[in-house]
Specification:
The chain has a single domain, classed as Glutaredoxin. It contains three helices and four strands. The protein has a four-stranded mixed sheet, with helices on one face.
Length: 77
């Protein structure tokens, strides 16, 4: 599974969600890709007010404030 974390440079929550995802990688096998939406106008317009956003194989599974338990469930743990 490929998990994409959409972030911005100014996002404080983004780092926290990345840490949660790195911990979950020890339990669930997935590839993690971080994408700064500031580098893509289309992504920025779509997600600027919702980051961090987590996509699993291209499907949105979490956004903004989430917790590790919800992320684990969304990723199939």
């Amino acid at each position: 599974m490929k998990v994409t974390l959409l972030v911005t440079a100014e996002c404080g929550l983004c780092g926290k969600v990345e840490v949660m995802l790195r911990r979950l990688q020890k339990k669930i096998q997935f590839e993690l890709d971080l994408v700064d939406i500031g580098a893509d106008d289309r992504l920025f317009r779509k997600y600027w007010d919702r980051v961090p956003v987590v996509l699993a194989d291209g499907v949105e599974v979490a956004e903004a404030t989430t917790d590790e338990k919800r992320l684990a469930a969304a990723l199939g743990a």
